[in-house]
Each structure stands twice: as C-alpha cells, then as structure tokens.
C-alpha cells in the first residue's frame, strides 16, 4: 500500500509543475494529504505561464456571511473564500484584476482583498470629500447602493503594493474619483462639465478612459489632478431611432491592444404594464475606437476572445488558450440593473445572466442556474484569474 505522505517533496512539486494548470487542479491535488498540500501552498511558484484558469463567478451568498463562493465554469464546482474581516454589517462587492473590492453599507469603508493570497489593502473613505452626502441619511440600504457603482484597478498590485491606481464611480450622478497608494484621500477631477453619469472605466495604455451615459469617451492622464481630461470621441448612444423599450449600457474593454466600446441593449417592460418588472439583455453592439484620432467603427465580433462584464471591471480573455469551458467571440454577462431588480417582486434580481454569441447575434445559453443567484445587494459578478 502506498504511503502518499512519504513521497519526496521535490517529486510532488515536479508533478504539480508539469501537470497542474488551474487552481481547481491545485485544490484537488492538495486534498491527497497534508504533505502534498504543504508542498504546493505557494502557488506563485508553480508555472504561471501555464495558468489556464477561467474567470470565476462569485455567487450572491447572504450578505452577512463571512465567506463567499466562487463557481468554476470549467469544473462546475465551488471554491469557498473567507473574507478578511466580518462584522454585523452588509457589504457590497465589486471585482477588478482578480481582487475583490468591498464597501461597507454602514460606514462606507473600502477594502481591497486578494482572495488567492489573502492580502488586504485599506483605502480611504471617499465620503469626507463629498459635501453632497452630508445631506443624506446613510441608514437606508437603497441610498447606500448609490454610493459606489464600480471600481477599476489599473493593474494587479505587486508585493510592494504601491504600483497601481484605483478609479471608482460614485454618487447618484456616478462621478469619478481616483486614488493611489500613499495618498491620504481620493482625487475628484473637475470633469462634470465634460462628462455625464459615467457608466464604465477602463485602464488602457497608461491612462484611465471613461464613457458616460451618452457615449462620450474621455481620457484621464496618469496625473489625474494635474491635467484637464480630454474628450476622445462622442459615439452618441441616445439616437432618436432607438427603440423606446431598449436601454443602452456602455462598457469599455481592451482587446489585443485596442479599446472597444460594448453597447449592451436591455429590454425594459412598459411602466404600469403587466411586464413592467421584466427586463433582459436583448443584444450587444461593438465599436472599435482609435484613441489617437477619435474615429470609431462598428465591428462584428472579437475573434478568439471572450468578454466578461457585470459589476466587475470589464475584461477580455483569449478563449483559445483554454481547453474547454470558454466560448470564443462571446460575451459573458451578469445582471447589473440595480434600480429594476430591487423593485422586482419575482426574483430579486440576478436573472439577467447568460452567454451572448456575437456571431449568432443572440443569447445562446445560461452558464449558471444554481443557488445563490439572486441578491439585491451584490448580485453575481466575475473574478478574473490571478496574473502572477
């Protein structure tokens, strides 16, 4: 009978380096025995170039739980992660560059948390910078949800933790704020004369780019407060011929060193009608931007790539690098319509999720229909694979 714990560590590490390709593989490998688990506990040492980890879907577990579950698209299994701290509080979660960003619904504290290394970075509270909030009683959860809409990290923080920047969309008007390590407070650029209600932000070629409600794209330099943002292009989303039942949500994403605008068209039921609470993603359009001359053109697809969007920062992956579980030329989307699903009596949000084929021009399947799908605080969102 083989005593697995007596196998030399160098052999265990060699097997892991040559044959394991995802965190699920490492999890299963470590279950053999404690010595195997200890031999591979530092995953950063194991072939990062072979990392074929698909993004996870973070489920909408009860808000006051001390853990969250990540669902694997390829393995159809769950991975539990413990949160860095737990209080009698409710947290709203976002994700960017493989990190989770949590905002307390009672005191608005902001925490960056790496679920794979358990590293924690505390960010300053943005509210002292915003006089507008002095007039609002932040005790109502509906009001609390309007404080932050999304967080975008410029790059995955390294071990030194000082080589990245963070952008957030906050307030009911969805203004922009930026923060860098070492700064005591957030920087809020005076850009409201140029851009309205920001819907998404992308870090592209050493600059943050933002797109607003009407399709105007602006670029913010690396020194956000020292220079005026520049208008890149206005794609005019709110055209007169747009179907009155369709609402358009724009996203920005980098694909192969090109900045794309993703236009998500959501069908909305008529107010007062029987289907008032019904909404679903109808279609997507894609525009390719030239950030140098402001020109743009419509494109039909993204080739071998797949795009993931939701409450996370929008990102793309090369689907061809995965053996299975990722469909090329598709958009994986999760529910983001807070205003509607908080008032929906049927399912409390989370139902508008699926995979949209850009080639077939339709939603081709659902990727998850299990428990912890519906939540009015933090619906399911995508967590990128770690980039070591």
From TrEMBL:
Taxonomy, superkingdom: Eukaryota
PANTHER family xref list: F-BOX PROTEIN SKIP23-LIKE, OS07G0183000 PROTEIN-RELATED
Organism: Chenopodium quinoa
One matching Pfam family: Beta-prop_KIB1-4
InterPro entries membership: F-box_BR-signaling, KIB1-4_b-propeller
Protein name: KIB1-4 beta-propeller domain-containing protein
Domain KIB1-4 beta-propeller: residue ranges: 70-357
